[in-house]
Specification:
Dimeric_a/b-barrel, sequence-specific DNA binding, 3 helices, four-stranded antiparallel sheet, alpha+beta, 95 residues, 32% strand, AsnC-like helix-turn-helix protein, Alpha-Beta Plaits, Tscrpt_reg_AsnC/Lrp_C
């Protein structure tokens, strides 16, 4: 699994519409509206690195209202949520 974090600057008047269209793209797992210098952050998760070239430049960048993107590819995932889920496998509630 390859994860990319895509920072999106969008036309301010179209942020909700852009977010919905980006979220509907295959490979995009979630889209967050955020404060600061960005408008949206999209999480892209694909099986192979080459698929990023289809999802991001061919689809995300072409959504009407997307002004620019900046992509960061994740090397590793460090998540308390993931660790807790892994350690709870096989345990019953209340144990």
């Amino acid at each position: 699994m390859v994860t990319a974090i895509v920072f999106i600057k969008a036309d301010v008047a179209r942020i909700p519409e852009v977010a919905e269209k980006v979220a509907a793209i295959d490979g995009v797992s979630e889209v967050y509206s955020v404060t600061g210098g960005l408008d949206l952050i999209a999480m892209v998760r694909v099986a192979h690195h080459d698929e990023l070239a289809t999802v991001i430049p061919d689809h995300v960048n072409r959504v009407p209202g997307v002004l620019s993107t900046e992509t960061h590819i994740a090397f590793r995932t460090y998540s308390t949520h993931d660790l807790e889920a892994a350690f709870s496998l096989g345990q019953e509630d209340g144990v």
